[in-house]
Amino acid sequence: DRANGHASPTILERGEDEEVASDRLGEQQTNTAGSDDDDDDEFNLGPDVDFEGDPLSAEEQRVVVAAQKLAEVAMIVVKAGCKVLLTAPVMLLDAWENITWHSKHLQRGIEDLGAALYGPQKKAELKELADAVVITLECLIEEMPGEELPAESALRQAEVKLEVAKTELDEALGGHSLVPS
Fold this sequence. Notes:
It is a single chain. The chain is mainly alpha-helical. The protein has helices at about 20-40, 60-85, 95-115, 125-140, 155-170.
C-alpha cells in the first residue's frame, strides 16, 4: 500500500500513534474520492462540436415539413406492404426479401434526406435524395404481390399519399421536379 501512496491503518509512520494514522488514512481516502469528482469536471470528449445548422428560412422550413410528410408516407408504405404480405394466403418469401431489401435502403435514404435538411439547404442535393426515397417507395409498392390492389387497401391509399407528398416536396423545392409518376 505504501508503494501506491496509501498507508495501511496498521502501519504507523515514525512517531505517530494509531489515532493520527487513522486520521491520515481518512484524509487520503477523502482526497482520493475528491479527485474522482475533479476528474469528472475535467473530462473532455474533445473539441466542442456544434450539431446545429444555420437558422432555417421560411422556404427551408417548408422543405422540412414536406420532407417530413414524405418520411411519414414511407412508414405508411412499409406498414401497408407488411400487412399485405402477412394477410397473403401463402408465404411469399421473395416479396418479404424485396420489402426487407428496399426497407434497408429506404432507411438510409430517409436518414440522408434528413441530414441534408439542415441549413443551408442545397436544393439540387435535396432533390436527388428525395428522388431516391420516392423511387424506393414506388418499387416497394410496385413489387407487392397481386395484379391490382383494391382502392380501399392501405397500400393503395399510401400510393395516393406518396403522390401528394411528392407534389408538396416538389413545390417546396421550387419546382425542382421529383421523379415523374
